[in-house]
Amino acid sequence: MAFTVRLLLLISSLFLVLESLFVQTNSGKVDVGASLSATAGNSTSWLSPSGDFAFGFRQLENSDLFLLSLWYAKIPDRTIVWYANNGDSPAAVAKGSLLNLTADSGLVLTSPRGVQLWKSESISGVVAFGVLNDTGNFVLEGDNSESLWETFNYPTHTILPGQDIEKGGKLRSQRSETNFSKGRFELRMQDDGNLVLVTINLPTEFVNAPYYASDTTGDSNSSTAGTKLEFNSSGYMYVLRENGEKLTIKEAETVSARSFYLRATLNFDGVFAQYSHPRDSSGNWSVVWSVPDNICNMEVASGLGVCGYNSICTLQGQRPTCACPKGYSLLDPNDPYGNCKPDFIQGCEEDKLSPTNDIYEVQMLNNTDWPLSDFMQLNPSTPESCNQSCFEDCLCAVAIYRVETCWKKKLPLSNGRVDSGLNSQAFIKVRKGNLTLPVPQPPNPDDKKRKNQTTLIRVGSALLGTSIFANVMLSAIVCMGFFFIYRKKHVRPNQNVLDSNLRSFSYEELKEATNGFNEELGKGAFGVVYKGILQIGSGVPVAVKKLDFVVQDSEKEFKTELKIIGQTHHKNLVRLVGYCDEGQERLLVYEFLSNGTLANFLFADTKPSWKQRIDIAYGVAKGLLYLHEECSTQIIHCDIKPQNILLDDYYNARIADFGLAKLLMMNQSQTQTAIRGTNGYVAPEWFRNLPITTKVDVYSFGVVLLEVICCRRSVDMENVSEERAILTDWVYDRYLEGVWDAIVDNEMEALHEKTKLERFVMVALWCIQEDPTLRPTMRKVVHMLEGVVEVHVPPCPSPYSSEG
Ligand SMILES: *[C@@H]1O[C@H](CO)[C@@H](O)[C@H](O)[C@H]1NC(C)=O
Ligand SMILES: *[C@@H]1O[C@H](CO)[C@@H](O)[C@H](O)[C@H]1NC(C)=O
Ligand SMILES: *[C@@H]1O[C@H](CO)[C@@H](O)[C@H](O)[C@H]1NC(C)=O
Ligand SMILES: *[C@@H]1O[C@H](CO)[C@@H](O)[C@H](O)[C@H]1NC(C)=O
Ligand SMILES: *[C@@H]1O[C@H](CO)[C@@H](O)[C@H](O)[C@H]1NC(C)=O
Ligand SMILES: *[C@@H]1O[C@H](CO)[C@@H](O)[C@H](O)[C@H]1NC(C)=O
Ligand SMILES: *[C@@H]1O[C@H](CO)[C@@H](O)[C@H](O)[C@H]1NC(C)=O
Ligand SMILES: *[C@@H]1O[C@H](CO)[C@@H](O)[C@H](O)[C@H]1NC(C)=O
Ligand SMILES: *[C@@H]1O[C@H](CO)[C@@H](O)[C@H](O)[C@H]1NC(C)=O
Ligand SMILES: *[C@@H]1O[C@H](CO)[C@@H](O)[C@H](O)[C@H]1NC(C)=O
Ligand SMILES: *[C@@H]1O[C@H](CO)[C@@H](O)[C@H](O)[C@H]1NC(C)=O
Prior knowledge:
47 strands; carbohydrate binding; six-stranded mixed sheet; protein serine kinase activity; elongated; protein serine/threonine kinase activity; serine/threonine-protein kinase
């Protein structure tokens, strides 16, 4: 008997133990003192009794950080319905951070070093325990089971059945699908009883006009005023009016909350939608309903639409996608819903430099509109006159034609959308060709203010990208501009021309642009050249030359020389874009040319065509002519060689490094010049006590010309016989013998143009005359190459050496 009693007692106490175990694991209850640690794995969360929901740390995608959140635990998606946040940003924490449940402050999140990162706010009273309810609500309760804090009262982007939003409450979107920072959209239950969807202008909280409203406004005496948004536990969502009536957000087929998980989420793209998911782990979330019907059609006067500025919204399903028009690109490539920027600078200043119809082409888009950016309306109009009117108007970025009306619009364009119901045509102006380089702007002498502009980097695609006509026009205008300035300078000596046509960069900027001087393009006589990208348009590649000489007390000279270089504008010169002059750091920023140096081109394994080489020769000659005679201050290059001649996208020759010789020679007497050109290309007067004139460049050009003709190095000790090692001597001998096929190595294309070949060789031989006075000027060289003037038989280039 006693045994039976003891057995019964034992069984009942066992039962008690079992029961307490059962309660501990299934009540969803969390005791004060419990903690969770942010580590990868499954031990980092608390479950609701049914196991439907989990509360704890979730590792963020592609990140070492963890987010304190609440999610559906049974479905593969593990969809997050709530997350801890500090207003603008999610409380993402490092591995090893701790969440403690304390009696005083409720939930407290601390970093591995013990710094408090987040806590459950506004707790008054002592917390007895926490509980994760099967509704998906995490509640902190006091001794009398009163709720002190619950996640339902601090919703993020999602509302669950059983949850309300009272007046003053709101849901907010996150930044993107994976970024939990605060986004631009909010669902607000306003104090006036109206439920609205709005965009806010970040970083302030300025609220734009709603793009959806329940229209339940009213003062508290009005029985139809809204009181709160309710998502009742059966899965119905409505605005509850004062009089108890329910205004359903959107009529839709009923989905049973018993067999489906339900949630309503304000998506990062501004669409507020209710979703359902089968309670068993099969299947996916599907949309029950969503508002607004077409979010692309929202019009937000003082803010962005769904998509960023200049972007175009297209509805796919019920969700928006954004795209930039052709000729525009994303400001932040990682944010497809963000702003688009034109890949060119559009505006009257830029347009002035070139005839309009050479810069732009028009792209036509059907049923596309940016309804809010017009500055002019024309009526009546035709599609053609609408297009033309915008085309000719430098303020106009796009024109929309619809029903005999033309709307001309300016940048930035906002609220862009595609909608087949629009029945409109859009004419967008886009620069022809690719984004090209910043062109220094010729200062306007009448406009003093512009002399102190810091944004002088301009994108003038005309100079590079379009027709020769545009090039000539632009060059002419630029040259005239500078000529004017140059003359004016004598009147107003303090005028700082440098500031007005070159951009001054900080060392930091260039360090950033070159990614810490990472990619070396080459080493020259003056320093190392690095590749960089300026953040203009979709990124402008540049070559940054770090000058490795520092001449003391030469600040003024440096600027003077830069000014001279900055004033040069010729299609056969590499353009200087800007400079950096900071302490000991002297850097020059040039346009980047994609096709490398003439040296690499000429002496590569495959021989470039005769035609290409001829064009390059003309280019170099014209570039030098410009330096010697056509720019405002004469520039002697002093180091013409194939390594200093670059090739652009179209294989035009572009002379580099001009103007630097003088910089380097500052403070140095002529005789001890450290720079003496490069062996093989150097005029003899460098070695004799003769004045250095433009003729040194003519000499070097002659050598380069022979290299271009023969595709051989001027000095080649390794690969050829001694007889052929010195190209100039060898060519002269072959010329005397009349052995043309040897000179061009039997190249048929060249031999077919024998007169041209002869002419070129003879010009080269004139250029390399030892006596500088015998060498022609570059102007004469150009004329001779072009066949405009006759080329006489050249004398022996080096009579002295052949004598000796
Ligand atoms: C977590 O648990 C789930 C289901 O129990 C399992 O599939 C998953 O592999 C676990 N993850 C880790 C990191 O242990
Ligand atoms: C949180 O809990 C852990 C483990 O229980 C404990 O070591 C730590 O001191 C607690 N931190 C705070 C701030 O209470
Ligand atoms: C959990 O939810 C149920 C049903 O909504 C409710 O009756 C219960 O009071 C909730 N528990 C807590 C602790 O909030
Ligand atoms: C999330 O977006 C914000 C705002 O655009 C940005 O500052 C932040 O770096 C982003 N976070 C991540 C992890 O990408
Ligand atoms: C509501 O009605 C009462 C009596 O009609 C009036 O005194 C009060 O000002 C009204 N309140 C508002 C907010 O209009
Ligand atoms: C939720 O609202 C619907 C529609 O008014 C109603 O039929 C249903 O009974 C409500 N459910 C609960 C639990 O109140
Ligand atoms: C759920 O969606 C994924 C991709 O979105 C799809 O591959 C899968 O087949 C869907 N599952 C069901 C049951 O529809
Ligand atoms: C645009 O509409 C015009 C006339 O309505 C039509 O001829 C043209 O093919 C359409 N263009 C595109 C790209 O759809
Ligand atoms: C718009 O006008 C420009 C300039 O006249 C013209 O070149 C272009 O073809 C026109 N485009 C359309 C679609 O009419
Ligand atoms: C523009 O640049 C891209 C990439 O740099 C190139 O693929 C494309 O051919 C260029 N287009 C023109 C018209 O030069
Ligand atoms: C340019 O303007 C800024 C302020 O707008 C001024 O600080 C600076 O001294 C000016 N520079 C010159 C060269 O006038």
